[in-house]
Amino acid sequence: MGRIALSKNNTGKDNTAMGSEALRDNTTGEFNTAIGRRALESNTTSDDNTAVGSSALQDNTGANNTAVGRQALRTNTSGNANTAIGVSALKLGATPGNNTAIGSQALESSTGFANTAVGSQALFLNTTGQRNVALGFGAGVNQTTGSDNIYIKNSGSDGESGTIKIGNSSEHSKAFIAGITGVTPGGARSLSEISPAISITGIYS
Q: Last residue of a domain, which of 66, 91, 116?
């Protein structure tokens, strides 16, 4: 339904296209759903994609992707198993895989693998970083190439890897963490005795 929607379909079956040029180039791809102008426009042979929103998954040739929102996963080509919900979520990544972006501009620039970003502009500048987790508005926004980081309401630092950051000093002054032993409540003390890789600047009961 819509101008030249599914106009090149040959043997593809069980596809749904609503909107001008939706699934326009599809030939043999199956079980795809495209709702919105140019949604899944360039998909030809790939299966099991869902695109809802203008230009969502527009350049897609990958499979098992879900994009909800204008230009979500717009330039994805061969990336598979991505989920993008929000305007411009995962917009510029050409070949990312197994990423989850929820929120406007979350993971917008990413071509990395297995990142999870929840919150508007979370991991916004990430390009090649992999296996990062960011939760909250602007979480991990400074990160571009680092991998294996966890950011919770923290903007992070560019290039770092294997780092966990929770909160920020301008907004948070206390931490209540259950299950930590060997540290006197109320004081600031390193946990190097427990694990050299863990450092906590303030513990409060």
A: 91
